[in-house]
Design goal:
This protein has 178 residues and is an alpha/beta fold. The chain has one domain: Nucleotidyltransferase, domain 5. Helices cover 38% and strands 17% of the residues. The chain has a 5-stranded mixed β-sheet, with helices on both faces. β3 and β4 form a beta hairpin. α2 crosses α5. The chain starts with a strand and ends with a helix.
Length: 178
C-alpha cells in the first residue's frame, strides 16, 4: 500500500485522512510519498514527492469528484512520468513505488526535507507555467514535470551531500531493489 503523507491543505481538500501516524513512519520505504495541494490560476493541483528520491509527480486541474479515483489517477500519472523520464520501459516496474494500487492518505509526517523539496518544485512548476506557457491549459505537464525531476536535489539520506537528480536517485534505488 502506498503511504501518502498530506500537508494540511491537501488534508482539508481530501477530508478522509488518517489522523494517526503509523508506528513505522520513521522507517521510510520507497513507496512513501509526501503530497501537497496548491493552486495555479485558481485551479487545484497536487504534487506527490517520493520521500527517498524526491521524484515528483504533478497532477494538474484536479476537482473534488476526482478524489474517488485518485488511486488510478496517481498510478496513471506515475506510470506516464516514469515512461517519459525513461526510468521504466513497462508498467509492471511501478510496483516498488506503490506497493499495490491503493493509496493510504495519512496526516503530515512533518518531514522538513521532503516539504522543502515540495516548496521548491511547486515554485518551479508555477514559474514554468507562467513564463513558458502563460496559462495552465496549454502546459505540457509531463514534459515540465520531467524537467523538474532533472533538477539536482541530492538524496534524502545522503550524508556526503552530493548533488544528484530525482531521476538518478530513483534509478539507483530501483537498481538496488529497495
Amino acid at each position: 500500500m502506498t503511504r501518502v503523507y498530506c500537508t494540511k491543505k491537501l488534508k482539508d481538500f481530501i477530508g478522509n485522512v488518517e489522523e494517526t501516524l503509523p508506528d513505522d513512519f520513521n522507517e521510510i520505504k520507497l513507496s512513501d510519498w509526501n503530497a501537497h495541494l496548491f493552486f495555479v490560476e485558481k485551479r487545484k493541483c497536487i504534487v506527490f514527492v517520493n520521500i527517498l528520491t524526491y521524484y515528483s509527480v504533478f497532477i494538474a486541474d484536479i476537482v473534488k469528484k476526482d478524489l474517488k479515483n485518485i488511486d488510478e489517477i496517481f498510478e496513471h500519472r506515475l506510470e506516464e512520468q516514469l515512461l517519459h523520464d525513461r526510468i521504466i520501459y513497462d508498467t509492471k516496474s511501478v510496483v516498488p513505488l506503490t506497493e499495490g494500487s491503493k493509496i493510504r492518505f495519512i496526516k503530515t509526517n512533518n518531514n522538513k526535507k521532503a516539504i522543502g523539496r515540495i516548496n521548491d518544485f511547486v515554485y518551479m512548476f508555477k514559474v514554468h507555467c507562467s513564463v513558458k506557457y502563460g496559462h495552465l491549459k496549454g502546459m505540457d505537464i509531463v514534459y515540465e514535470n520531467g524537467l523538474i525531476n532533472k533538477t539536482p536535489t541530492g538524496q534524502y539520506a545522503d550524508i556526503k551531500k552530493t548533488w544528484t537528480s530525482p531521476i538518478e536517485n530513483l534509478r539507483e534505488k530501483l537498481k538496488l531493489g529497495h
